[in-house]
């Protein structure tokens, strides 16, 4: 795993000409990060028939036909839904086989699919960011094909690293599990927050107080985990007094009882439930391969 140094990455980011296909939640979060880290708005073009909020100075076109006479960008970032990728790619075929790096953030869509769509020799990076990118706390994992040059990799590292942390992997097969853990993971944390609030109401709290407690507890625990030297298991142990209240709750969350018959799975602990959820997400990522 290699990350560009800040100075090298900053220079690569500032020099990049980028076309962003899909300016929705993920594309928009990336764009905000790039501009925040010094990419001039004039160097980015968003291609989207119905984009989210596009910052001032960034050109937006609804259709790539408007760009037919323009020189190829350094990086073509693909941030449309995986299911529409096949319909979108043919319009960009002319960018294949040259120096333009095709940088996908789409779940499931494999490097081989992009190589087939853009032709031999096309540099391709497959990556999976996550929505905390919107607040510069993203986690992205990326994988490059052999046609990506060191300079192309540095530029992609700078683009993806502009919204948070980045790791590179050599084995593309890992990306399905990455998608299931860090790509989809924020949703699991939000669900945990929702469940904690609902449980608080069931335990007698007013709804607004339960919401506040759940949210503040999750963000506070995340901040502690971010800053503390201890690992999560030690932080958990620090909350748990012998025979105290936390131990009573953890007995429920950590008891692995798969049950039998129709209600199977009802009594399983959080670890088994999370393993099943992550496996389902990874399976879905593999299903989305094009
Ligand atoms: N939302 C998330 O948490 C994550 C999303 N991703 C990936 O990011 C990609 C985008 O997802 P979201 O931003 O969540 O979806 P989104 O629906 O917010 O954004 C998709 C954008 O594509 C645009 N679009 C539709 N047709 C188009 C076309 N022909 N040409 C150009 N743009 C077009 C839409 O107008 C929309 O703005 C997906 O492939 C997803 O797998 C990856 C990691 C996390
Ligand atoms: O749900 C999805 O398919 C996308 C990819 C990871 C997060 N959102």
What layout of secondary structure does this protein have?
Elements lengths: L5 H10 L2 E4 L3 H12 L7 E4 L11 E3 L13 E4 L6 H4 L12 E4 L6 H8 L5 E5 L9 E7 L5 H12 L2 E5 L5 H10 L1 H18 L4 H21 L4 H8 L5 H9 L16 H18 L3
Parallel strand pairs: 1-2, 1-4, 2-3, 4-5, 5-6, 7-8
Antiparallel strand pairs: 6-7
Helix pairs in contact: 1-5, 6-11, 7-8
The CATH class designation of the largest domain is Alpha Beta
Which bin fits the share of residues in helices?
40-55%
Number of strands: 8
Low-confidence stretches: none
Which structural class should the secondary elements be placed in? alpha/beta
Bound molecules: 1,4-dihydronicotinamide adenine dinucleotide, (2S)-3,4-dihydro-2H-pyrrole-2-carboxylic acid
Second-tier CATH architecture of the largest domain:
3-Layer(aba) Sandwich
- Helices and strands, in order, run as HEHEEEHEHEEHEHHHHHH
Query: Taking all residues together, what is the mean pLDDT?
Result: 93
| Main sheet strand line-up | 3-2-1-4-5-6-7-8
**Percentage beta strand:** 5-15%
Beginning-to-end CA distance, first to last residue: 26 Å
What count of structural domains? 2
Give the helix tally: 11
Instruction: Give the C-alpha Rg.
Output: 22 Å
Characterize the main sheet.
8 strands, mixed
């Amino acid at each position: 795993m290699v990350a560009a140094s800040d100075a090298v990455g900053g220079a690569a980011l500032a020099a990049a000409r980028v076309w962003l296909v899909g300016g929705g939640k993920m594309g928009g979060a990336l764009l905000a990060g790039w501009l925040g880290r010094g990419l001039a708005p004039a160097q980015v073009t968003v291609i989207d028939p119905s984009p989210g909020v596009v910052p001032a100075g960034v050109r937006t076109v609804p259709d790539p036909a408007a760009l037919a006479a323009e020189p190829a960008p350094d990086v073509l970032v693909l941030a449309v839904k995986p299911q529409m990728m096949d319909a979108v790619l043919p319009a960009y075929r002319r960018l294949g086989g040259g120096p333009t790096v095709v940088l996908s953030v789409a779940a499931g869509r494999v490097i081989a699919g992009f190589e087939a769509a853009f032709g031999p020799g096309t540099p391709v990076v497959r990556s999976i960011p996550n929505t905390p990118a919107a607040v510069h706390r993203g986690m992205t994992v990326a994988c490059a094909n052999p046609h990506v040059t060191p300079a192309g990799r540095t530029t992609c590292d700078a683009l993806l690293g502009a919204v948070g942390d980045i790791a590179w992997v050599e084995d593309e097969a890992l990306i399905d599990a990455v998608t299931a853990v860090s790509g989809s993971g924020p949703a699991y944390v939000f669900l945990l927050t929702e469940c904690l609030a609902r449980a608080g109401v069931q335990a007698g709290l007013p709804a607004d107080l339960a919401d506040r407690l759940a949210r503040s507890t999750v963000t506070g625990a995340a901040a502690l985990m971010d800053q503390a030297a201890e690992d999560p298991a030690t932080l958990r142990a620090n909350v748990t007094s012998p025979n105290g209240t936390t131990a009573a709750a953890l007995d429920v969350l950590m008891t692995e009882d798969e049950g039998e018959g129709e209600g199977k799975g009802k009594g399983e602990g959080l670890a088994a439930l999370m393993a099943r959820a992550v496996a389902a997400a990874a399976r879905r990522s593999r299903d989305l391969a094009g």
